[in-house]
Amino acid sequence: MSDLSLTVLGSATPYAEPGNPCSGYLVSSGETHVWLDAGSGTLGELRRHTSLDRLSAIWISHLHADHCADLLTAYYGLRYAEIDLAEPIPLYGPPGIAGRLAGFLTNGPHRSPVEEAFAVHELSDGFSTGIGPMTFTAAAVEHGMPAFAVRVEAGAAALAYSGDSAPCPGLVELAENCDALLCEADGPTVSEVHHTPEEAGETAGSRGRTG
Q1: Phi, psi angle pair for 207, to nearest 5°
Q2: How far apart are CA 91 and CA 117, in angstroms?
Q3: Which of 91, 123, 136, 138 has the fewest other C-beta atoms within 10 Å?
């Protein structure tokens, strides 16, 4: 995937482990960098590679804390640290994400101004947007709550990320003919909200491309 690079910031669940934060990734194409899921501990790892004010966008698959909790500390960084933010960072996430952040951040009679740090865009099934040279396309997946897989394309390269999801047709369709599928796998027990390792292999094998 010469047109795309993927950096794993963390993959632990349901809480961070020593040396391994929760789910979070950095997807880049040239000088365009997108923080893909912001699980606990991933902000520190992100800063090894880039700074908050150099991000082109943040994309959140769903609102479980192990995929979005570091948005809270990112907000403090963007508002109060030595960051010269020209404009709010585009934040793509499930419906209600701004209210969820405000609920955590508000400590008095006035709602915290989350929109001063984040330009919020709510995801829906089939939502698509360009971010620099990359195109991001969302697909609703099965996780017992609003959750979205994403396909990232740049030039001839294509990457799909499941977020947390049970096996479902929407994910297989989104990942069709992609170069790589980043697919979560929880444990050995079949559930309605996660892949088992075996199911992740089956989903990967269904995407129409080997490798």
Answers
A1: -85, 0
A2: 9
A3: 136
> Residue 84 has what pLDDT?
84
Tell me how far CA of residue 121 lies from CA of 93, 95, 127, 186, in angstroms: 7, 8, 10, 28
For 149, list phi and psi in degrees, rounded to 5.
Answer: -80, 165
* Secondary structure (DSSP) of 75-128: HHHHHHSS---SSPEEEEESTTHHHHHHHHH--SSS---GGGTEEEEE--TT-E
Residue 85's pLDDT is: 87
CB 181 within 8 A of CB 204: yes
* 61 φψ region: left (φ > 0), alpha (ψ -120 to 50), beta (else): alpha
The set of residues, in sequence order, having a beta carbon less than 8 Å from that of 171 and lying 6+ positions away, is 139, 141, 149, 160, 162, 165, 183, 203
pLDDT of residue 211: 37
135 exposed, middle or buried (CB, 10 Å; 0-12, 13-18, 19+)? middle
Residues 6 or more apart whose CB falls under 8 angstroms from that of 47 comprise none
Residues of the chain with pLDDT under 50: 209-211
* CB distance 31 to 68 below 8 Å: no
What is the third-level CATH fold of 5-205? Answer: Metallo-beta-lactamase; Chain A (3.60.15)
